[in-house]
Amino acid sequence: MTTTTTGPAPGLTLDEMRAAAPIPATETMPPDMAALIKPDSGIYIRSDYTPKTAFQVGDSPGATADWRVLESDGQIRSTIPGLAQTELEIDPRAESPTDDTHIRGYRPPWVEQRYLPDLAPYPVSAHQSGLAEDRMFLEAFAAEAERFPYPWRTIGKVYTPTGGGSGVLVGPNLVLTAGHVMPWDQPNWWVQFIPAYRAGDPNPTPFGSSYVSEFRGYRPQGGEVFGYDYALCRLYQPLGNALGWMGTRSAGDSDIESRNYTSSGYPDTFGGRPAVNFALGIRDIDNDDPGREYETVHHVSDGWSGGPLWYFAGTDPYTVGITSGSEKDGLDPRRDVYAGYRAMTDLVRFGLDNWP
Length: 356
Hints:
Blueprint: E1 3-4, H1 14-19, H2 31-34, E2 44-46, E3 55-59, E4 67-72, E5 75-77, E6 84-87, E7 102-103, E8 119-120, H3 124-127, H4 135-141, E9 142-145, E10 155-160, E11 163-171, E12 174-177, E13 192-195, E14 210-217, E15 231-235, H5 239-243, E16 247-249, E17 261-265, E18 275-280, E19 282-288, E20 291-296, E21 308-313, E22 316-327, E23 335-340, H6 342-354
Parallel strand pairs: 6-14, 16-22
Antiparallel strand pairs: 1-7, 2-5, 3-4, 7-16, 8-9, 9-18, 10-11, 10-13, 11-12, 12-15, 13-14, 14-15, 17-18, 17-21, 19-20, 20-23, 21-22, 22-23
């Protein structure tokens, strides 16, 4: 796990990803790592002490074999509350960085790496979404991820009291997502991250889950796309130690528009199942130093908020942006917009340095 300013290898094209051989696992996951990826869900009682009797129950009228809670010695919850949130201010005097900083990811030796996942057809529900102008593009390039080797397993679903979005592991206990999906100023707030979540499966949480103890980032104003639209979450459970995590890159180099990128997340039209979109190109960049807005070629679907825009630099995956939303400029078609650049990598570096 290192932070450097020398550039990674050139990005792989989709054809190169297709031709690249998988990197096999070389070890068996240790028991302490396997314990990390058990689902972090249940009934919790928030109290200043450990009660002798957690709660009392009574009959549930009209139901068979069901009980209702009458009273308890603490606050009964189905989530684990967060402890702190920090809203960062934008410095209008910030100078544009001249170097291209990247932070390497981590693949555990017990996890196989694949450059492409197994894919399923685009779901019928998406064809009924009314996105007729994008339909051919969607059917050709967007598909559901069926298997979850590295780095695909690092991407997951983010749930909050106000909805949620997508996110990606970028450290042992760090998840990067969009600032606009965070429950800013919500009382008794909570955030849950579920890697590789698959709604409708017998086991929708194959790699467990974790609630968030704190988060920090930038809060967008006015519902517009935003070059600083990212937040970093600190997990109670260090899922990344078991699953691995992606690297992050400021992407300040001159060849950013010549690469092919992959976008991953949980669009509304997929009904709580993961999706991936390949071979995306960046067609426009709006500077918001030290943040940036990266516009890709097309607008795919709503609901990808917080999902990563990333690519393979040789064998290493790097996130360069986080889904902020979409916008339409003049006569141009509507395009998806990702927030990234140096403020994003600085945020991840803060987490690595200060949230062990």
